[in-house]
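Bug #77: duplicate submission created two jobs. Keeping one. Sequence:
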Amino acid sequence: MTRGGAVPTATELTGPAGGAEAVRWAELTWARVATGRSAQPTGRAGPSGHHSEPGVHPDHMRPEAPVARTPSVLSPEAALERLGRIRLNDHSTSSVLDEIVGLAQQSLTGDVEASVTLIRSGKPFTAAYSGHLARDLDERQYGQGDGPCLEAATNGHAVDIPDAVGDDRWPEYLPVAVRAGCRSMLSLPFPVAEQLSGGLNLYGRETGVFDETGRGFAERFASYAAVVAGNMLAYEQARERAQNLQVALESRAVIDQAKGVLMERHKLTADQAFQTLARLSMETNTTVRTIAERVIESGELSGRPQQ
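Kept job's structure:
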């Protein structure tokens, strides 16, 4: 399955593990571990702090085009088997969510659309969807601040609406859904990570689409799929951290050389030289390695050395 638009990464979903900020943090961490000091710079949160996250905004994570619908129908067993065969190193978190939405749609009887709602820092967004009906009805709920998908995602229990016409739980939302062509809904909890709750949303164009058998399978599928998505997210975060650490390690020689220049020219200790590089890095929003390269090339240091 493919999807157009911006693709959410693990960084966008849960916090930074890449970019200049994380590279700088990895450099600081390596150097401070080597000297036995704390890795937290004074007065600034690390990469896990929300304020330093690059590009984290739900609007940036919403796809601009739906997953292409496949006419083939899978049996529940085949859908679960394909779910279990997903290889994490062949995917991203975004593509796994796309796969989950596609499998859910193809394995349920009736005319069904599916989506995944994720809630991060109290803000819901649709991370994957199979068609415009699912996307539009998700976003209608976000705008109203209430609805079955938000109920499932925030409270962790299933919401079943066999007939939206006769249900009075969401009097503002359900009439809109009916006019859009949706007659039944099933929203299921989809917890991906500790700080990332979610829901798997199923929209039927006919009443009673999700009978007892269908609901039982959907609940089973959602619980398995949430585990797969959570594993993918953890794997992607670990991969990003490893990449950042590699960058930091490659910077070691450059930083050590720059420290030597500062120690010789300004009579600083090794720790004072690094503190000077780190301070300039924070002040200029530049990686420590870049600051170090400038020192090596020019032999000069912008700013007063830290004594």
